[in-house]
Write a structure and sequence with these properties.
Number of helices: 15
Helix content: 25-40%
Strand content: 25-35%
Number of strands: 20
CATH superfamily of the largest domain: NAD(P)-binding Rossmann-like Domain
Distance between the termini: 47 Å
Number of domains: 2
CATH class of the largest domain: Alpha Beta
Radius of gyration: 21 Å
CATH topology of the largest domain: Rossmann fold
Largest sheet: 9 strands, mixed
CATH architecture of the largest domain: 3-Layer(aba) Sandwich
């Protein structure tokens, strides 16, 4: 296996650090629009056994042709997309043209319904990718989409629950939360998102999507079609008690890929995603929206150069992202843990009501000590690496555009939990809860 990682930000850098300990690939090219950043990532793994398998390169992820050329130059078999979801389609097309398989951790972007955005979906997350599924299948090639942590690991958990824990499922409720704190230079907590603020704004301010089987049936839809609907941002807050010492966190509906993926492969009455944002984070996001700073369309602003005032075009959201610290740089100032998982309710194999939370907790002190990566980016990065290893072994295989739910969950979860060097030494758990 010869892998091209497009993007060496926090997650791409963590991918290299994790993969450096594994032997399933012969080459990993780490590419970024900032060649120096890719070179820094490669330098971090150069001293470990097998570190000579890593190569740094420059690529513009917005140009499919550059992705294709770089992949062909290195005989790449698999392209792992580790950049913002706005670049999903050019990276996907670049991989296809190069004859490579493809993986990502976030899917193609949505566009709200033009007249009724808080009731009806418009273009949904992943629609552009699923539209080309037949072309990938006809070519015998796999595009494994949504294979991070959320989406990704939570989808694997859902597949496992459906296959091994439940006779029927009422709801697959993804719940994600943390108790992370970032300290400033003065030792006081500061606002510093632990993941890409560009992506966070996108998923938190877009209309959240919910899927319900009854709506699908009433609409006469087939498969999952007809079951999706939208609600306003930050809808239906609930306090969810997270394990791992995190405790109660207020969670709200957020637009996320799991709701668009799970109904395609798993039989459930309802699928939801709620994110533990907290009051401060929600207040900041609301303010950005009111001021128009969440916009992606460029605006003209007055700048300055040596000859006097000048006008430049810039995206307000890109300005916000540039003003905040790089999430990859926060590890040393961060404490706490992050938890990803899915709350599954329904009828257990014994015919009785059952409610379980399948989850994965990563402590920041552990991920920094073991990998030099903060916990949120590490937890996101480990899952596509596990998936790549299963593909390299032939344990997972397929063609077309597929989600994690399309594959047997047991080999993935066994490999993730098994101690090193056989596995990745990152345990997950099933917590029984009292059915409500």
């Amino acid at each position: 296996m010869r892998v091209l990682v497009v993007g060496s930000g926090g997650v791409g850098d963590a991918v290299a650090r994790i993969a450096a300990r594994r032997d399933f690939f012969e080459l990993m090219v780490v590419a970024d629009h900032d060649a120096a950043r890719a070179e820094r990532t490669v330098a971090t793994v150069a001293g470990v056994p097998g570190g000579d398998r890593f190569v740094a390169a420059r690529v513009d992820a917005s140009r499919a042709g550059e992705v294709t050329a770089l992949a062909r130059r290195h005989g790449i078999t698999h392209v792992l997309n580790a950049v913002d979801p706005r670049f999903v389609m050019p990276v996907l097309e670049g991989a296809f043209a190069a004859g490579a398989d493809y993986l990502d951790m976030a899917m193609s972007l949505s566009r709200p319904h033009p007249t009724d955005p808080y009731a009806l979906p418009g273009v949904k997350l992943g629609d552009e990718q699923f539209a080309v599924s037949e072309r990938w299948a006809d070519a015998g090639r796999l595009a494994l989409v949504g294979m991070g942590v959320e989406p990704g690991l939570s989808d694997v958990f859902a597949r496992y629950a459906a296959d091994h824990l439940f006779r029927s499922i009422d709801e697959l409720g993804v719940r994600d939360g943390a108790n992370l704190v970032v300290l400033g230079d003065d030792g006081e907590p500061v606002f510093a998102p632990s993941f890409s603020i560009w992506t966070t704004i996108e998923e938190c301010l877009n209309p959240p999507v919910i899927w319900e089987r009854d709506r699908r049936d009433a609409s006469g839809g087939t498969g999952p079609e007809g079951g999706w609907y939208t609600v306003p941002p930050f809808h239906e807050p609930e306090v969810f008690d997270f394990p791992g010492g995190i405790g109660p966190v207020e969670c709200v509906h957020v637009e996320h890929e799991e709701v668009l993926l799970m109904p395609r492969w798993i039989d459930a009455r309802r699928v939801t995603f709620k994110y533990g944002l907290g009051e401060e984070f929600i207040a900041v996001l609301r303010t950005l929206h009111r001021l128009g700073l969440d916009r992606t369309d460029p605006v003209t602003v007055r700048g300055a150069d040596a000859d006097g005032p000048a006008r430049v075009r810039v995206s307000p959201r890109d300005v916000v992202a540039a003003c905040l610290p790089d999430p990859a740089s926060l590890g040393e100032r961060m404490s706490g843990s992050t938890c990803a998982g899915v709350l599954v309710t329904g009828t257990g194999l014994d015919g009785r009501p059952r409610e379980v939370y399948l989850h994965h907790v990563v402590d920041n002190a552990w991920s920094m000590r073991e990998y030099g990566a903060q916990c949120v980016v590490w937890q996101t990065a480990v899952n596509p690496v596990v998936a790549l290893e299963l593909l390299a072994r032939g344990t997972w295989s397929g063609a077309g555009v597929q989600g994690p739910e399309a594959f047997d969950a047991v080999p993935f979860l066994d490999l993730l939990r098994a101690p090193e060097p056989a596995g990745y030494g990152s345990p997950w758990a099933v917590e029984e809860r009292e059915p409500s």
